[in-house]
Structure formats: structure tokens, C-alpha cells
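Ticket 4471: requesting a sanity check on a complex prediction with F7E. Repro inputs:
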Amino acid sequence: MKRAIIFGVSGQDGAFLAQLLLGKNYRVIGVSRTMRTDSFHNLELLNIRNKIELVSSSIHDFRSVFTIMNRYKPDEVYNLAGQSSVARSFDEPFETFESISVANLNLLEVIRILKLPVRLYNAGSGDCFGNMDGQTACEETPFRPQSPYGVAKSAAYFQVANYRKAYDIFACTGILFNHESYLRPEEFVTQKIVKAACLIAKGQADELLLGNISIERDWGWAPEYVTAMWMMLQTKKADDYIIATGITLSLKEFIAVVFDYLDLNWKKYVKTDDQFLRPTDIQTIRANPGKAEKKLNWKARYNGYDVARMMVDAELKYQKK
Ligand SMILES: C[C@H]1O[C@H](OP(=O)(O)OP(=O)(O)OC[C@H]2O[C@@H](n3cnc4c(=O)[nH]c(N)nc43)[C@H](O)[C@@H]2O)[C@@H](O)[C@@H](O)C1=O
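Returned C-alpha cells:
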């Protein structure tokens, strides 16, 4: 039986990945910063909490990472931990850098020192590219990050590339663009829109306040993206891959699909409020996932339009319970 450790098991991606690996008969060790019962809501929703060995550890504590890796000696390690909100990274730059870059370095150092024959997945981000003036990002496009989050993710990406080359460690970075689902917290714009629109449809709310709604993103469906993470670790040679749908839509379009699906006119309810603007923001993101399609045989089935409707379906089902 293969052993996998997932750092950050309680988040959206951690939960979907744990579900995927359990389905492939892995022994799954899930690491979370806190063992508070309410932290495992996602695992409970997927009905897998009791199938995972849960361990408490802070990934930016070297000793703690060392102990866990030495105890379980996993075949695969997925680093999905760390502060994941771009907006919050402007208010918490230190926490963002430590939980992403320092934590990633801890893992790489532990693997190097213990000489573990492990395969490592590092959660990278399309946010690293910054604004690209209409260009489409591929794996060769240089990073020009514009947020503390993008800077931290870029550092982690280069750490992985450096350790792969210098010490022959099997380590991959998945450069994932926005990926959403019903497990997304409302801190992210898609879930904020879906939850508010469903409340408006039920007559329980009458407005939705947002920041910059002219931005454009490539939104995919998270359960598909965790499959790509696993696929990266099954290849012969470690490499980095962009994971995206290849289809970009504006936030206005996303809002319109959600509201239309609920028979509502979004223009009546959506208002903008400066408190949700960021010091710097990425206007348009376009991604080319061609390498993942060619080398991993991975291709997104759902695009942002589908994601909007699937999130509404899930929210309506969930609200009824
Ligand atoms: C690839 C990357 O993808 C995600 O980062 P993100 O793109 O910043 O995601 P978001 O949902 O917070 O914002 C999307 C856009 O929507 C705009 N926006 C308008 N009004 C609101 C608003 O009210 N709330 C929020 N959150 N955003 C708003 C906001 O200004 C931004 O332009 C993370 O998964 C991250 O971990 C990651 O790696």
C-alpha cells in the first residue's frame, strides 16, 4: 500500500486530494496545523474524516516536519499548506511568506537530509505571473508577481527547481490557476458570489458588495485539479506544469451566469465597494495548459461557465440540508 502525506489536508484541495488517494487505495496521513474539530468540515462533508490518519503539525516548524517525515517515510508528499488568500497576503505578508516559502524549504531540507526516496508535489500558483499585458502564460513565461502571495509562491517554485537540479530530488510544482468548488470558503470571490446570489434568490439578502469586477480569470473545477497533482508524481521525470482550463472569463460574466441561473438580474443587486480593492491586482489572466495535456494526458473538462452553475447547484443542495 502506497503512503502519502498531505500537508494542508483540511483545505479544499487537501480534502479532494485525500478523497482521490483513498480511492486509489493509498494510506493517507493528513497534516493540519490545528486539530480543532471544526477544522475538518471539508473532510466530514466528503465523508472521509475517519479514513485519514490525522496529525497535528506546523509546517513552518522544521523539527515537526522532520519528525513526521521520518516517522511515516511516505512515497509521496503533497504540500498544500499555507496562507492561500491573495487579498489577505497584503495584510499578513510575514505569515504568508513563512507558511509558503519557509515551510516549503523545510520540506525540501528534510527530504535532502534524510535522503528520503520520496516524490514531492508543491502547490504553485498562476498568481506568480502577475499582469501579462494580454499574453498567455506557459511554463516558460517569466514570473512577475504582484502580491506578497505571488512573491512567496514564486520563491517556493524556485526552491523546488533548485533542489531538483542540485540534489536530484523528485519534486514538481503545479502552477495552478484559480480552481473552485463547493468547498471554497467565502474569502474567495466565486463562493462569495454564489452564496450571496442564493440568499438573494430566497429573499434573505438584497445586495452583494464586491471590489473590482472587471478582472478576468481562468476558473476551473478543483476536483479535476487534484488529479493533475497526482499525475505529476506518477511520471518518470519530475517537472513543472501549468494547470488551467485555457478559457478566461470576466468576473462580470461569472456573476451574470450565477444570477441568470437563479433567474435574477445581477445589475439590480451587485454594488462595488472600495474596501474590497487590493493595493495591486491582476487584471487579466490567460493560461495555456498544453504541456499538461501533452505530457500528463490531463485536460480540464469544466470551464468557468460550468463551474459557476455547478457551485450554485451545490449551494442549493447544501442549503436545503
Ligand atoms: C491562482 C490564485 O487564485 C486565487 O487567487 P485570486 O485570483 O486572488 O482569487 P480571489 O477569488 O480572491 O479573487 C479573484 C479576483 O476577484 C476580485 N474580487 C472582486 N471583488 C472581490 C471580493 O469581494 N472578494 C474577493 N476575494 N475577490 C474579489 C479580486 O480582486 C481578484 O482579482 C487563489 O486560489 C490563490 O490561492 C491562487 O493561487
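Notes from triage: The two ends are 36 Å apart (CA to CA). Leaving this open until the requester confirms.
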